[in-house]
Design a protein that fits this description.
With 439 residues, the protein is an alpha/beta fold. Helices cover 35% and strands 18% of the residues.
């Protein structure tokens, strides 16, 4: 009998899951669908097996027999946030170590992301093999109860240079080593290939040579993979864009972007994958007690040890004592300026934060990032689209990003309208992934 049930379940999946698919009807909400269209009031949605079957005006709703009805009480619904730059599983409180990369810690991170409305996260180059098992478990059903995870696996760090995480990233020094590593990544079917091209403001004597970066990018493309680069300097961005890199994992932060780079990014189809403004702000925000340290929306996602440390004058002094401390705020301001310039110029841009390492808190920082992007000059609607539809476009994830028929019902229910004030994305009443409410 058990074997028959398994075969029957397999048939259900073969025919689209409809044999066992529960049907939910969401009613009485204002829809912000992620496409850039303005809010639409008095909407309804039918979700069947986790996917959107129909969405439109309540007046046209034809409720399926036996469906569960969920009245959202006039609240606002937007797609789940897609974070194109995170690092999962390596940090506990304010300490980062490869030994923390356990199923328990990875899933804790993914659940924290989901609690804050982040329904998809790309883990960018500091992952161990366990991530592939968790990713495939999620994709087997398409209906995880935590944030969906994409991964770059083990990113490329040049020998003696900046980047990666000790105990995870094996440095490379030759093209032959690059080719061998790319074969490994291709076998693991990574979602992106990541490289670090940076000397961390000249604190490292070496930086990945351009021929190695080009070998990584071109080798990834030959294997049907896309490549993304951690950069800081305008000249380094220019070099990897000319080499055909698909995304810049951070914004340019040493000087204003110029027309030559803009033209090259548009020519090659290179995305500003993530501006990571909250990452730059985290470099100086803890020099005194940050304004969010006592906010319940922040503290619910971290331990009391973290809260106590952020309030500790000794910890704050250690931040101020960083030899590079005075450089961090101007770097942050440059990143904001360059985001606005690139967006205005029509360069494709997504949304990401570099959360995961110490002091860059999953979930809360994605919310803060949206506010910083508005401070940089973008409209709330531009930011919402960047964090939803554009993220899915960059990932080539056709099932995600907008609340339209056939897509997964990954969505956030908000008390107030985020188009009027982006800070209203914090007014989370519920989060759904594939139609299931997450804790």
């Amino acid at each position: 009998m058990l074997g028959f049930c398994r075969d029957f379940a397999t048939l259900a999946l073969f025919f689209g899951g409809s044999l066992f698919a529960e049907v939910k009807v969401f009613e009485n909400f204002t829809l912000i669908d992620g496409t850039g269209r303005g809010p639409a009031a008095r909407q309804a949605m039918i979700v069947d097996g986790g996917r959107i079957g129909w969405v439109g005006p309540e007046s046209r709703l034809k409720k399926p027999a036996g469906a569960e009805s969920i009245d959202l009480g006039g609240k606002f619904v937007m797609p789940g946030i897609i974070n194109l730059h995170g690092h999962v599983g390596n940090t506990i409180d304010l300490t980062q170590d490869a030994k923390y990369f356990t199923r328990e810690n990875i899933e804790k991170n993914l659940k924290t992301y989901a609690m804050y409305g982040v329904t998809t996260v790309v883990s960018m180059g500091t992952d161990q093999n366990l991530i592939f098992k968790i990713r495939e478990e999620q994709r087997g059903t398409g209906r995880p109860l935590m944030a969906r995870v994409y991964t770059a696996g083990e990113g490329f760090v040049y020998k003696g240079s900046y980047g990666g995480l000790a105990g995870v990233n094996r440095p490379v020094a030759t093209v032959a080593e690059v080719e061998a590593r790319l074969d490994e990544l291709a076998a693991e079917k990574v979602d992106l290939v990541k490289l670090w091209l940076d000397d961390h403001m000249s604190t490292f004597k070496t930086k990945m040579p351009y021929n190695i970066a080009r070998a990584i990018i071109e080798g990834a493309h030959r294997r049907g993979l896309r490549a993304t680069a951690h950069i800081f300097y305008l000249e380094d961005a220019r070099q990897v864009v000319e080499a055909g890199v698909n995304g810049l994992a951070h914004n340019i932060r040493d000087k204003p972007v110029d027309q030559a780079l803009i033209d090259s990014m548009k020519k090659h189809g290179t995305w500003l994958q993530a501006a990571t403004l909250s990452r730059e702000a985290s470099q100086f925000i803890y020099a005194s007690q940050p304004p969010f340290a006592a906010a319940p929306f922040f503290t619910r996602g971290v331990s009391q040890n973290v809260v106590n440390t952020l309030r500790d004058p000794k910890y704050q002094k250690s931040i101020r004592d960083d030899p590079e401390f005075e450089r961090y705020r101007p770097i942050f301001e440059m990143a904001k300026r360059n985001l606005k310039t690139l967006a205005d110029a029509g360069v494709h841009y997504g949304f990401g934060t570099d959360t995961g390492p110490p002091g860059r808190f999953p979930g809360y920082f994605e919310q803060w990032e949206m506010q910083l992007m508005v401070e940089a000059g973008l409209t709330p609607m531009q930011v919402i689209v960047a964090a939803t539809r554009s993220g899915a476009e960059f990932l080539q994830a056709k099932d995600l990003g907008t609340l339209e028929p056939s897509k997964w019902a990954d969505m956030i229910v908000l008390e107030r309208n985020p188009v009027e004030n982006i800070k209203n994305t914090e007014t989370i009443q519920a989060v759904y992934i594939a139609g299931n409410r997450v804790n």
